[in-house]
Amino acid sequence: xxxxxxxxxxxxxxxxxxxxxxxxxxDRIRQLTNKLGNPQDKLKIISISGTxxxxxxxxxxxxxxxxxxxxxxxxxxxxxxKINERFIFSGKEITDEKLCELIExxxxxxxxxxxxxxxxxxxxxxxxxxxxxxxxTILESGLFHRYDACSCIKQNLASVITAIGMDHLDWLPKxxxxxxxxxxxxxxxxxxxxxxxxxxxxxxIMEKIKKNLENNSSQKYFxxxxxxxxxNDEGFLYKDKFGSFQLSRPSLLGDHQxxxxxxxxxxxxxxxxxxxxxxxxxxxxxxNTKNIGRLEQLKKxxxxxxxxxxxxxLDCCHNELGAEVCAKFTETLGAHVHLVLAMMKNKEHKNFxxxxxxxxxxxxxxxxxxxxxxxxxxxxxxxxxxAGIKSECSNSAEEAIKKLVQKxxxxxxxxxxxxxxxxxxxxTN
Length: 429
Description:
By secondary structure, the protein is of the alpha/beta class. It has helices at about 1-15, 25-35, 55-65, 95-110, 115-130, 180-185, 205-210, 255-270, 280-290, 300-305, 320-330, 350-355, 375-385, 395-405, 420-429, and strands spanning about 45-50, 70-75, 85-90, 90-95, 135-140, 160, 195, 220, 225-230, 235-240, 245, 295, 310-315, 335-340, 360-365, 390-395, 410-415. The protein has 2 domains: about 1-290, 3-Layer(aba) Sandwich (UDP-N-acetylmuramoyl-L-alanine:D-glutamate ligase), CATH 3.40.1190.10; about 295-429, Protein-Tyrosine Phosphatase, Chain A.
């Protein structure tokens, strides 16, 4: 607890090194990594960018490789419960003590120069990864990719493009908030390596990705062209240029996770010059994958104690594409589904909630504790009501669960809308 308090104080200092939380540029991160001796150049990197599925694909890749006894580093964002989650070195979450040391070292070398929070965290990860002596570094991009701090790398083994959709539109010019611009931001600066492109929500998006990558000389592996899957009673049949085999469903819930698993498998199987993977490694990797807050069932804690007969899920869906996936999952549950919902101001709230029309029974709307940039529950509640879904405000997730248990003792509850909300729920559960 003492070190966690120290970490929070150190992070507060980092937040004030630049007057903007997000300022897309590579100049600051490159200046800092140069001072650090360019630790990112020493790594064997699998880069992952896109809108949805980045975290799940990263964790599946990690799980499969670790089952084959490869040591993995992983950089992801944002964290759910605590900042340590972002820094995995040799398969283990960084300790408080080690994180303090790395923050202090990089902060000292930066010497007060302007740099965003995400940029300096990325530099901290690169330095830690360069010392971990792992076999592979899995690098998850932040908002976009073209000017994301993770794009300061000069080489990688592969670039993975996950499902692309509308999100973080407030960081784009108002007249350019289109899927075309998002595709450009996420794919136009991919390195000359192997490119693996996930299944997309719409064929037109895949065609636009292909068009944007025309002049990239990398080997390209598009879903359906070079790898595919088919869901069946036993799980799913995976197929690529090397062959096909039957697999059970991943431990991560939802049909979309089968799509994510197929992308992860395709990535690893196209890196056979570096990593030797057997089918049993894939089987065990899919079985053992964990990813906090992705249709994760809440099985203990005070919220579960309030609803012993109800199934409670936590899901970090916060954009239109994520809502679509979550809504599809509700169709498999065989019970009334109720959302406990809180969201940030900068999301497309109407588009998000529209995906749940005729799929859920009701919504309890909350504020996000300790988040000034959340949409107020009264305003969000009105949006839900205007979408034709029963809704009311609650002062907390705990109050929402109490209300829902009284209304529907056998219903299914999904807590969703913001990663920050999930973090607060888990930390107080």
